[in-house]
Amino acid sequence: MQINRKLRDVAEIARKMSFQEARFQETKEPGGERLCLEHQEALKLFCEVDETPICLICRESRAHKAHSVLPIAESAKDYKDQILSQLEILKEKRKEILALKSSGGKESQELLTQTDAKRQKTVAGFKQLHQFLEEQERPQLARLEELDKEIVKRRDEHVAKLSEDIASLSALISEMEETCRQPASELLQDVRRTLNRCKREKLQNPVLFSPELKRRVWDSSQIDPFLETVMKLFKDALSAGPQFHTAKMTLDPDTAYPCLVLSEDRKSVRWEDKQQDLPDNPERFDPWRCVLGREGFTCGRHCWEVEVVDGQRWSVGVARESVGRKGEINISPEGGIWAVGQVGSQYKALTSPETPLSLSRPPRRIRVCLDRAGGQVTFLDANTEAPIFTFPQASFSGERIHPWFWVGVKSQLRLRPC
């Protein structure tokens, strides 16, 4: 860090001054002043080039004559002032880091609370899903078991009937074969009865399984494609994660503060020093330098991107349609606004109190993600997909939610397609 290097340089000079004082510690005037070893004169000056105390004779010597020299007390005061100045900067930096540490701990706790709530909701959801599937599975398996029993019964009955027919035919065949082996006189005695018996022995071809039973078996298999389709949809939904609809966004000129100039396509807004002559309608923000997106949302998941074209004073987010427009407004979730922004070199989430953001790089394109039903507002760096901030789950109370923008001095924002 530049601050650390400066402080090290100043501290090194102070250390050298102390070292030089130590060198002359043994040689002192009666009054206690340290003396130059070479000239036995009091060390009243400090050479800034060589960074060492010198006496008046040293000052006139060739070694120091061309150098910048100050009284030793004055030089010590200058360096002490520099050290104190750097100390103040370091203390302020430490204060900022402590604030970041505190906000990081707070944000992590909020995220852990959210994940715990999601975990409980997921467990409950899957439990309900298991229960529903089991309730649907039981009657389906019971119907299949009934079909199994009926099929086995029909099969056994069919086999028994065929076995009877086989036994009857086998007996008749044996009788006919025996008749054929008889002498002619005996064969002719009863041949007509034997032939009539053969003609009377009509074999039926019984229907093993009725069309109605086959239809029931076919009907039971129709759930398989349905289950496969549902399973595929379920897997695809889980693997893809929440899907956000890319919102086509424009700015609402009726809500813009008079110093905010909108482009013709209503995609860009910039700050101008001179106020425009605009009607003071109830929808217009005044004196806050805000503008809303024309489109509002009451359901679904939506996302849009905002480019920081210029400036270091801006905020982007969402707001309730009922957000205050006149006088002082509370820019926080309590006031109906969920946003992040930049003021100077500081990036903040506009919570109450504000949450400092520690970002690895300044975001120049911010993606705003609104889960209207889930009450979630998330901000990402659109160029790197790095998360910026996620607000705790909110209740929008059925109200329409609009994109919200605050544009400060010399700043400009532009809506971009995702």
Automatic annotation (TrEMBL):
<dbReference type="InterPro" id="IPR003879">
    <property type="entry name" value="Butyrophylin_SPRY"/>
</dbReference>
<keyword id="KW-0479">Metal-binding</keyword>
<dbReference type="InterPro" id="IPR043136">
    <property type="entry name" value="B30.2/SPRY_sf"/>
</dbReference>
<comment type="similarity">
    <text>Belongs to the ohanin/vespryn family.</text>
</comment>
<keyword id="KW-0863">Zinc-finger</keyword>
<feature type="domain" description="B30.2/SPRY">
    <location>
        <begin position="229"/>
        <end position="418"/>
    </location>
</feature>
<dbReference type="InterPro" id="IPR003877">
    <property type="entry name" value="SPRY_dom"/>
</dbReference>
<keyword id="KW-0862">Zinc</keyword>
<dbReference type="InterPro" id="IPR000315">
    <property type="entry name" value="Znf_B-box"/>
</dbReference>
<dbReference type="Pfam" id="PF00643">
    <property type="entry name" value="zf-B_box"/>
</dbReference>
<dbReference type="InterPro" id="IPR013320">
    <property type="entry name" value="ConA-like_dom_sf"/>
</dbReference>
<feature type="domain" description="B box-type">
    <location>
        <begin position="31"/>
        <end position="72"/>
    </location>
</feature>
<dbReference type="Pfam" id="PF13765">
    <property type="entry name" value="PRY"/>
</dbReference>
<dbReference type="InterPro" id="IPR006574">
    <property type="entry name" value="PRY"/>
</dbReference>
<dbReference type="InterPro" id="IPR001870">
    <property type="entry name" value="B30.2/SPRY"/>
</dbReference>
<dbReference type="Pfam" id="PF00622">
    <property type="entry name" value="SPRY"/>
</dbReference>
<comment type="function">
    <text>Neurotoxin that produces dose-dependent hypolocomotion and hyperalgesia in mice. May directly act on the central nervous system, as it is 6500-fold more potent when administered intracerebroventricularly than intraperitoneal.</text>
</comment>
<dbReference type="GO" id="GO:0008270">
    <property type="term" value="F:zinc ion binding"/>
</dbReference>
<protein>
    <recommendedName>
        <fullName>Zinc finger protein RFP-like</fullName>
    </recommendedName>
</protein>
<dbReference type="InterPro" id="IPR050143">
    <property type="entry name" value="TRIM/RBCC"/>
</dbReference>
